[in-house]
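Input sequence (105 aa), recorded before submission:
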Amino acid sequence: MPPTSPTRPGPQPRRNRMSQAPRRPYVLGFTLTELLVVMGVIAVLTGLLLPSLAYARFRSKITVCANNYRQWGIAAALYASDDGKANPLVGPSYNGNTRHLEHIC
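Predicted structure, token format:
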């Protein structure tokens, strides 16, 4: 192998400023457009979901009311079967008014 001569560092070639693209630092985050699109998608999904939630709430109130009537019926049947007493949900109350179960729901 032939002996190599030590190389001296020579002058660096000049670079044209226009040939280099400006460097942007890497930015973590979202653009405004991306955020607006995500907010729009969330708004549409919320608009689709809220009516079904309102209907579910309405159905749950109906179920609670029906369960209250059922519990009152079971209680009245147990009361009437105990020692042959009369059904407490039928007939006038102590103040003379007819009993109703409208206050349950």
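Checked by second reader. The chain has a mean pLDDT of 77.
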